[in-house]
Amino acid sequence: MLESLGLDMDALAVYRAMFEYPQAEVKQLTERLGWPEERVRTAMDALARLSLLRPSSDVRGAARAVNPEVAFAAMIEAREAEIFERQRELQASRNAVARMVQDYGELRSSQRSGGTEQLIGLDEVRAKIESLTRSARHELVSLVPSGSISAEGIKASRPVNRELLGRGVRMRTVYLASMQNNTATSAHIRWLADLGCEVRTRPALPIRMMIVDRELALVPLDPEEVNSGAMLLRGSGATAALYALFEYIWDIATPWGERPEKSDDGLTGQEREVLRLLGEGHTDEVVARKLGVSVRTCRRITAELSTRLGAVSRFQAGLRAAQEGWLTSRS
Asked: Is it true that domain 269-323 has CATH number 1.10.10.10?
């Protein structure tokens, strides 16, 4: 019990011995306690720091134990003052936190407009994603238009996803088909599928989004710069439209692990997306990012398609692809 006052077992044993044998010096204390002299002196130094020893009036250089009624009363009083100050600091911290929470709530309210909430920065978006995932009761669906998931992202999402699927929440996700080319990401998706997550793929996806229980939808503020922030949408109108988009993509997506079939014109879904995006005037860099592949892979696909179409330019390739009906087939 006295350890909270800074008095350890050795110091307490020496203090008691000095009371039982008031005239004992260091040598006698070592004999009675059966300790080395250094251990006794270390304990006496600790007692001196706690003001539990005083110089002897009778023997020069010797020390005597201070009356415990006086010594411990002073120690307890000092300890109580320390605790009181600590409690005062904690109360001040509690008040500061309360003000911060109030300010945060006012800020969040100012960022909300009707059925929307604006989230600024990647950290805030990630925190909201974790919160939404944990709050899901029935279903969570999402589109993930990126070519890979970082090791940090995989590590952070696993406990949340395991808990979600363990509660029986239905989880459906559409990834880019190119994710199957990334070893770490592919292994993570197989892990999700083993837990019960339903996974499909598409060559390209229009937007990153997450929908929880058909009630809340999270979409990026800028689809081209997802790290800038996101918008949380509430209300049946907005979420219903996005959910319908998800269902359309889910219906035409390929189950994870299956090879997508080529259409009658011999094009893969990825090749058709390359033609469509090039026809919209996107650069190789933008097309590659949207498909989750390297720029080199994108240029190789473009060159192969141009050869098949007998085109000598990107513009001519797009024109001939449209004439052949390659851009209208659903795959």
From this structure: yes
- Count of helix runs (H) and strand runs (E) in the chain: 12, 11
Q: Which fold has domain 2-66?
A: Arc Repressor Mutant, subunit A (1.10.10)
Q: Residue 280: what are its φ and ψ, rounded to 5°?
A: -85, 0
Q: Report the range of poorest mean pLDDT among 80-94, 147-161, 202-216.
A: 80-94
Measured in degrees and rounded to the nearest 5, phi and psi for residue 119 equal: -115, 125
- Which residue, chain included where needed, has tokens 């925190």? 127
Identify residue 91 by its one-letter amino acid code: Q
Cα–Cα distance for residue pair 154/131, rounded to 1 Å: 16
Pairing of strands 229-234, 216-220: antiparallel
The CATH fold assigned to 114-255 is: Endonuclease; Chain A (3.30.870)
According to DSSP, the residues that pair with 212 across neighbouring strands are: 140, 216
Q: How far apart are CA 141 and CA 250, in angstroms?
A: 10
Q: Rounded to whole angstroms, how far apart are CA atoms 320 and 308?
A: 10
Task: Please state the length of the chain.
Answer: 331
pTM for the predicted model, two decimal places: 0.56
Dist CA 178 CA 203 (whole Å): 7
